[in-house]
Design goal:
heterodimer, A: 454 residues, alpha/beta, Rossmann fold, 2 domains, 8-stranded mixed β-sheet, 5-stranded parallel β-sheet, 14 helices, 13 strands, B: 545 residues, TIM Barrel, 9-stranded parallel β-sheet, 9 strands
Chain lengths: 454, 545
C-alpha cells in the first residue's frame, strides 16, 4: 500500500522532494553534456528536474522556474555566451527569490569567484564532485525555502514556515495517537514522511489526512519488531525519495503488571518493541548515514526516540515498561555520541499525552483544542528537533505535554566521598547513609494518581 | 578498474591477459594487403616508386575564430606552420544557420568558430588560400558550406572542379548533437541529398558526403555506438541516393568518414581497421559497387576533446600525442588533434602550433609511416578488429530492424542513445571507474595547477564589430534580386520534389544570408521563419544601440 504520490503539478513546497530545479543552457550553447549530467544526478537523489534543454534566454529559464515554483535555476555553461546573460539572470532570480547555480567546463576559478561575487548561489567548475554539487544545491534549496531570500508568492504564512521541506523522515507507529500527530505535523512543515505501522487501515486514513498538506506521506506496513523491519523502511525511503534525513521512533505498546506477575512473553514484547526495535533502526539507518558521510555527501540527519516519564522517574506497577523506556533514554545518549561523527543528532522525547497507552488518563474533553493532553501539543517539539534550528542539539531528553515542556536533569554523579580500601561493615553503616543523604533523592515513582511529575 | 576484475576495453569487450596465434581467427584473405579488398590494412597501398605522392596523412587543425577576415589570418598562420589541410568550423550561430545580428546570436559571434552568413564571408575566408593545392574541410551546415565555397573559389581564380575537401552531412543526428538547425528531418535529408548531387556535378573531386562520427560520439558514446550510428547514416543516405537513380559508383568514392579517437588506443585502431573492412563489404556486397574507389573509404580523425582535462592542461599535449601516434599507425588520411586548451576554448595560436608540431614530429621523426599498417598481424589487434566488426554490424542490424530510420529520428530514439552515453560517461568519471589523470587520480591543488593555464584561460570578446558591419551591409543589397532569390527558396521548400540546392546557391549569390535562406526553408514548410521568435525583440546583449 502506498500513499498518493506528490503529483507533478503540486507546488514544490508540497512535493516532499529535496528540491525542484530548472536546468538548461543559455543562448546558442548547444552542449548538453553538463546539463544532462547534473539533471541525472539530481533526479537520482530525489529532486524534481524541469529540463529546458538548449536555446534559453534568462526570461525563459526564470519564467519556467516561476511557473513551476522551482527552488532554483541551474545553468550549464560550455560557451562564453553566458557572460552576456549572467547579470540579467542574476537579477531575475533575485527578484523571484529563487536560487541560481552555474556549472560548466569553461568556468575558470576566476569566473567562479566573479559569479559568486555577483550573487550566484553556487558555481561549479569542471569536475566538481557529485557530493560537492549535491551539498551546495541542497544548501541553496534550504536557504530559498527557509526564506533567507525574498519570500516567494506561494510560500505559506508565517505560522507554518516549511522548516522541513525536502526532509525525508521515517515515523514508526504512525497510524494512531502520537505517531499520527507527528506524521501530520511533519507534513504540515513540508517533510516527506515514510509512515510505518501494522494497522494498514488506520495508516491509509493518515495518508488521506495528509493529502492536502505541503508534505507527503508514504505508508509502509511493517512490524517494527521484525528483524528486517529497519531495512524495509530504509529501502522504502530510498526507493521513494532517494535519501533519508530523519527517524522518529515512536511505535510502542504497554503490558502492565507488577514484577511478580508479569510473564516472560509480556516482558519480551516490551523489550522488543521499545528497546530492540529502535536499536536496530539506529544501526541500519546510522549505517546508511555513515556510508553517505564516507562517500563525501554531507549528512544533516536527526533521530528522535521515544522515552517516557516512566523511563525517567519510574511508574508504579510498570517495572518492565519503565526499564525499557529508561533504556531508550540511554540509547539516545550513547547514540548521539556514536552517530554525531556522521552528521546525525539523536534525542529522545518523553511525551505526556492521551493515547491508547494512557487510557488511565480518562476521557478527553470534547474539543481537542481544550485538551492539554492532546497529542498535537507534542508534535511541534518533535518537528523542531528534526529541523534546522536543532542541528546542535543532541543526546538530550525533552518532556513535553500537558501544558508544559522541560529538559529533565539527567543522571549525574552525586557529592563524592573517599572510599576506604577496606570498607568494614561498621564503616559502611556510618558512611553510606551519609553518602545517600547528601545526594538528591529520586522522585517517588509515578502512579495513576498523578498525570505527570509535579 | 582494480586488479581483481577482468580487463576489458573501453567499450566493454573482455580482454585476455595475452593473445596468441589464432586469436584473430581469420585467413589473410579476410584482411587483405594495404590498398586491396577488403582494405582492412589501409585504403591505399604504398606509393609506387617515383610517384610524387608522399606518405602519411593530411596534417590539419580545427580553425575559425571571429570574422571571416580574422579566420583567414588564422588559416594562413596554420599553413605557414606546415598544415597540409584546413578544417574550418563555424561559431554557434553559423552552425545553427542563423545570422550574427540576431539578438540570440550576438553574444556568440566568433567565439567558437568563424562567423559566416553571406557569400562575401566565404570569399574573405579563403582569400589567398591555395585551394587548388590543399584540402578544405568544412565543419559547417553542409549545403551552405558547399554553396559558399562554390561561389567563393571563382572569385579567387579557382575552378570549383579542382576543389578538394569535405562537407559534413548530418541529417540524422544534427538536431540531437549540438548542430541543430531547427529544420525537420525531411528537409535536412533533402538538403543532404541535393547538396551531394550538386557537388558530384559541380565539385567532383570534393568529398561532399563526410560522415562525421566525431561530434555524435564525443558526448560519451563508445566505439561500437559511434561506428554503428555512423554506418547507419551512411546506409540511409546511400539508399536514398540510389532511390533517386544515382549509380552507386557515382557517389560512393565521394564518401569519407571523420571519426573520433579516445584513449583506448588499440580499440581505436581496431575500430578504424574494422570500419574500412565493413565499408568495403557493404559497398561491394550490399550496394553492388564495382569501382574499387567505391570500396575503400577515406577516414580522417579528430582526437577526442572529451578525453582532455581542464586540470593540468599540459597533460593534454601528451594525450594528443599518443592519440595521434595511434592514428598514424592506423593509417588515417587526415588528422586533427584536439588542442591542449580545448577544455577552455577554440584553439589559441600557440595550441595550434603545438598540435601541428606534434603531427610533424610523429610524421618526420618516428618513421612509423615507413610501413603500411605496421600493427597488422598483431594477434591482439586482429582479434579486436574482428570483435568490433561483429559488434558494430550487430548494432546496425538491430537498429535497422526497428523500422524506418526517419521515424526513429523524430521519435527521439537516437537522442536517448546520446543522452544515455553522456550520463554513462559522467557517472564513470564521477565514480572513478573511468580513470583520468588529474581528475580522479593524481589530482593537484588548484594553486599548484598553473602551468599553461594562463594561455588556456585567455578569452576574447564576441566580434561585435563584425555584427555591426553585417547590420550596416544589409540595406545596401539589391532588394529585387534578394526578394526573388528568397522566394525561390520558399517555393522549392514547399515542393517536396524540387531541388533545394539550385535556389540556395542563387539566393546566396544574390546576397541573401544563411539565416534568411534557412528562414525561407522553414516558411515554405509553414513553420515560423525565426526559430527564436521569443527572443527576436530582445535587445542584443553586449551591443549598445
Amino acid at each position: 500500500m502506498t500513499g498518493p504520490p506528490a503529483g507533478p503539478s503540486a507546488p514544490s513546497a508540497g512535493s516532499g522532494r529535496p528540491g525542484r530545479v530548472v536546468i538548461g543552457t543559455l543562448g546558442l550553447d548547444q552542449h548538453e553534456v553538463g546539463a544532462m549530467a547534473i539533471s541525472r544526478i539530481l533526479i537520482r537523489h530525489g529532486y524534481e528536474v524541469i529540463y529546458l534543454g538548449r536555446f534559453n534566454t534568462p526570461e525563459r529559464l526564470t519564467g519556467a522556474a516561476e511557473q513551476e515554483d522551482a527552488d532554483l535555476v541551474g545553468v550549464s555553461i560550455h560557451s562564453w555566451e553566458y557572460t552576456a546573460y549572467a547579470d540579467e539572470l542574476l537579477a531575475r532570480c533575485q527578484e523571484l527569490g529563487i536560487g541560481l547555480v552555474f556549472g560548466g567546463s569553461v568556468l575558470t576559478e576566476r569566473d567562479q569567484a566573479e559569479l559568486l561575487g555577483r550573487g550566484a548561489d553556487a558555481v561549479f567548475g569542471p569536475y566538481a564532485s557529485e557530493a560537492t554539487m549535491l551539498r551546495q544545491i541542497d544548501a541553496v534549496v534550504r536557504r530559498v525555502r527557509g526564506g533567507d531570500r525574498p519570500a516567494r508568492a506561494h510560500q505559506p504564512g508565517p505560522d507554518h514556515p516549511l522548516q522541513l521541506a525536502g526532509q525525508v523522515v521515517i515515523v514508526t507507529g504512525a497510524a494512531h495517537g502520537l505517531g499520527r500527530a507527528y506524521a501530520l505535523e511533519l507534513c504540515r512543515q513540508g517533510a516527506a514522511v515514510v509512515a510505518d505501522d501494522i494497522d494498514e487501515a488506520a495508516l491509509k486514513e493518515v495518508t488521506d489526512a495528509a493529502a492536502d498538506l505541503p508534505g507527503s506521506v508514504h505508508a509502509v506496513v511493517c512490524d517494527v519488531t521484525g528483524s528486517d523491519a529497519p531495512r524495509t523502511m530504509l529501502d522504502a525511503a530510498l526507493r521513494r525519495y532517494g535519501q533519508l534525513h530523519g527517524l522518529v521512533s515512536n511505535a510502542g505498546l504497554l503490558r502492565s503488571g507488577p514484577i511478580l506477575r508479569l510473564d516472560d512473553s509480556d516482558l519480551h514484547l516490551l523489550l522488543e518493541v521499545h528497546v530492540t526495535a529502535p536499536f536496530r533502526l539506529l544501526r541500519a539507518i546510522g549505517g546508511y548515514w555513515r556510508a553517505e558521510s564516507k562517500a563525501g555527501r554531507a549528512v544533516e540527519a536527526s533521530v528522535v526516540l521515544t522515552t517516557s516519564a516512566a523511563g525517567l522517574y519510574g511508574f508504579r506497577a510498570e517495572a518492565a515498561y519503565s526499564a525499557a523506556k529508561a533504556a531508550v533514554a540511554m540509547l539516545a545518549r550513547v547514540g548521539a555520541d556514536e552517530l554525531g561523527r556522521y552528521g546525525a543528532t539523536v534525542n529522545a522525547v518523553a511525551p505526556v499525552a492521551r493515547t491508547r497507552l494512557t487510557e488511565w488518563l480518562g476521557e478527553a474533553p470534547p474539543n481537542p483544542g481544550d485538551d492539554p493532553l492532546a497529542a498535537d501539543h507534542v508534535a511541534p517539539a518533535i518537528a523542531w528537533l528534526l529541523g534546522p534550528a536543532a542541528r546542535n542539539i543532541t543526546g538530550r531528553v525533552l518532556e513535553v505535554g500537558n501544558g508544559r515542556i522541560s529538559a529533565p536533569s539527567p543522571w549525574q554523579p552525586g557529592p563524592q566521598f573517599p572510599l576506604p580500601s577496606l570498607l568494614s561493615p561498621e564503616a559502611a553503616d556510618l558512611l553510606l547513609p551519609q553518602v545517600l543523604a547528601s545526594a538528591t533523592p529520586p522522585l517517588e515513582v509515578l502512579s495513576s494518581q498523578v498525570t505527570g511529575p509535579e | 578498474m582494480t586488479g581483481n576484475e577482468a580487463a576489458s576495453s573501453a567499450a566493454g569487450i573482455p580482454l585476455r591477459p595475452f593473445y596468441a596465434p589464432g586469436a584473430g581467427g581469420r585467413d589473410y584473405a579476410e584482411i587483405g594487403d594495404p590498398g586491396a579488398y577488403p582494405y582492412t590494412r589501409g585504403r591505399i597501398g604504398p606509393p609506387a616508386a617515383r610517384t610524387r605522392r608522399r606518405r602519411g596523412w593530411i596534417h590539419r587543425e580545427l580553425s575559425g575564430e571571429g570574422s571571416p577576415r580574422r579566420s583567414n589570418e588564422q588559416l594562413r598562420a596554420l599553413l605557414a606552420r606546415g598544415a597540409l589541410g584546413i578544417d574550418v568550423i563555424g561559431d554557434n550561430p553559423t552552425m545553427s544557420a542563423l545570422d550574427p545580428d540576431h539578438p540570440m546570436c550576438t553574444p556568440a559571434v566568433g567565439t567558437t568558430g568563424v562567423s559566416l552568413c553571406r557569400k562575401q564571408d566565404f570569399i574573405e575566408l579563403v582569400a589567398g588560400i591555395p585551394l587548388d593545392e590543399i584540402t578544405l574541410s568544412h565543419s559547417l551546415p553542409p549545403a551552405f558550406a558547399l554553396a559558399g565555397q562554390y561561389l567563393a573559389s571563382p572569385c579567387h581564380g579557382i575552378d570549383p572542379r579542382v576543389l578538394r575537401g569535405s562537407a559534413i552531412q548530418p541529417p540524422l543526428y544534427s538536431e540531437d548533437c549540438s548542430y541543430s538547425t531547427f529544420l525537420p528531418f525531411g528537409t535536412r535529408m533533402r538538403l543532404t541529398l541535393d547538396s551531394i548531387v550538386f557537388a558530384l556535378r559541380e565539385m567532383p573531386r570534393f568529398h561532399a558526403f563526410l560522415e562525421d562520427t566525431y561530434y555524435i560520439s564525443d558526448g560519451g558514446l563508445d566505439v561500437v555506438e559511434e561506428m554503428s550510428l555512423g554506418l547507419l547514416e551512411i546506409r540511409e543516405v546511400c539508399r536514398r541516393l540510389l532511390a533517386r537513380g544515382l549509380p552507386v559508383d557515382s557517389f560512393a568514392p565521394r564518401i569519407a568518414i571523420l571519426v573520433n579517437c579516445r584513449m583506448d588506443l588499440f580499440e581505436e585502431i581496431a575500430k578504424i581497421r574494422a570500419t574500412r573492412r565493413m565499408f568495403a563489404r557493404m559497398m561491394r556486397e550490399e550496394f553492388g559497387a564495382t569501382d574499387p574507389r567505391s570500396w575503400s573509404v577515406n577516414i580522417a580523425v579528430h582526437t577526442s576533446g572529451l578525453t582532455l582535462t581542464a586540470a593540468q592542461p599540459a597533460n593534454n599535449i601528451v594525450r594528443g600525442a599518443v592519440q595521434a601516434l595511434a592514428m598514424a599507425m592506423a593509417g588515417v588520411q587526415g588528422l586533427e588533434i584536439s588542442a591542449f586548451d580545448e577544455p577552455f576554448r577554440t584553439p589559441s595560436a600557440i595550441a595550434h602550433q603545438v598540435a601541428i608540431r606534434t603531427q610533424q614530429v610523429i610524421q618526420t621523426e618516428t618513421n612509423v609511416t615507413a610501413v603500411e599498417d605496421p600493427l597488422g598481424g598483431s594477434w591482439y589487434l586482429e582479434s579486436l578488429t574482428d570483435e568490433l566488426e561483429g559488434r558494430i554490424d550487430a548494432a546496425v542490424r538491430q537498429i535497422e530492424a526497428l523500422g524506418d530510420v526517419g521515424t526513429l529520428v523524430e521519435t527521439g530514439y537516437f537522442r536517448n542513445i546520446f543522452l544515455h552515453g553522456m550520463d554513462r560517461h559522467s557517472r564513470a568519471v564521477q565514480s572513478g571507474e573511468l580513470r583520468m589523470v588529474g581528475v580522479n587520480e593524481h589530482v593537484i591543488a588548484p594553486e599548484d595547477d598553473w602551468f599553461l593555464r594562463d594561455i588556456a584561460e585567455q578569452r576574447f570578446e564576441p566580434d561585435y564589430a563584425h555584427v555591426e558591419s553585417i547590420r550596416a551591409w544589409r540595406p545596401t543589397r539589391d532588394d529585387v534580386a534578394l526578394r526573388a532569390g528568397l522566394e525561390h527558396v520558399r517555393e522549392a521548400s514547399a515542393d517536396p520534389e524540387a531541388d533545394l540546392m539550385g535556389p540556395i546557391v542563387a539566393a546566396l549569390d544574390a546576397d541573401a544570408t544563411i539565416g534568411e535562406i534557412t528562414g525561407c526553408l522553414r516558411e515554405g514548410l509553414g513553420l515560423p521563419g525565426d526559430p527564436f521568435e521569443f527572443a527576436a525583440r530582445r535587445q542584443a546583449p553586449g551591443i549598445r544601440t
